[in-house]
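protien #1 (seq + structre)
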Amino acid sequence: MAVLTELDDDRFLAAVAVGDEPCSHAANVRLGLLLLRAHGRRGAASRMLELIVRRADERGGLVHVTKTVAWLALIAESGEDHDGDSVSFLDAHPHLLDGTLLERFYDPATLAGLRSHAEVVAPDRAAIGGFHRFRY
C-alpha cells in the first residue's frame, strides 16, 4: 500500500476502487474532497458511507454516519472548488488534518451516542456551513 502522497488523485481513486486505499484520517479527507468533486454533496455522502461500510466489513471497524457527513461538510466549507489536486488541498487546509476538529462543533457525548453512529445528527456546539445540504 502506497504512502498517501505517493499516489496522484487518479491512482488514489483506483486504489479506493479495489479496496487498497491507505486508511488514515488524511486519506479520508482526501477521499472526501475527490468524492465531493465527482458526485456533489448528496452523492459524496452516499458514496463515502458505502466505502466506509465496505472497509468496516473487510477490515473491521465502525461506521459513524454523523462524523462522515460532518467531515464532508467541513471539507466542502474549506473549498471543494480548490483548483489543485487533493494533496495540495490538504496542504492548503491543514486544519482538516486535526482529528479533534469536530469537537468544536459537537459535544463528545453527542458523537459517542448510538444515534450519531446510525444517522445524521446536527452539530450541537457550533454550526458547520452547508451542513444542512448533506443527505445520503
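ok now protien #2
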Amino acid sequence: MTLQIRGFASVFGVVDGQGDVVVPGSLFSMSAEIMPAMMVEHQGDQVGAWMRATETQYGLYFEGSIYDTAVAEKVEKSELTGLSIGYRVKRARLYRGRRVITSAELIEVSLVTIGANQSCLIDAFRRKGAPAWTYRKLSKNGSTTSAISISAGSSIEASTPE
C-alpha cells in the first residue's frame, strides 16, 4: 500500500522543544533533484519519498508517499501525526537565549509521534489512487480532533493555521 501525505515539516518563527527558531529561507536551499530522506522518528531506513517541498509564509510544506505498509497504517490510525526536520546548522545567531537558525542543510524529514515543533503536523493523507483526501484537524499535542474526507474536484475553504 502506498499512502500519500502532506503537511508542514517546519513552521517559521516558533520556538521548538530544543529552543531553536527556524526563519524563512534558512532551509530551502536544497536542489529539486535531492529531496531529504523520509524516516520515522529520525531513525532507520527510508520509509517513503518526499516528492515536493514548498516554502510558504507559514513554513516549509512537504508532499510525499509512504511505501512501508506498517508505517502507512500508523499514519491512518493517528499513531504518527507529526513531522520533524533533521538538519545540520550552517549559520545561527543567539537572540534572547534562543538559537535562531538562518541557514541549515536539511537532511531528512521524519514522521513522528510528537515533534520538537508541535505545529508541524501531517494535515492530510490518502491511499494512492483514492479520490478523496482525509484532512485532519489536530490539536497542538497531536491528537486528532476531527477528520473529513474530500473527493477530488471538491473544494473546501482554507483556514489559517493557529
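Confidence is low (pLDDT under 50) at residues 141-162.
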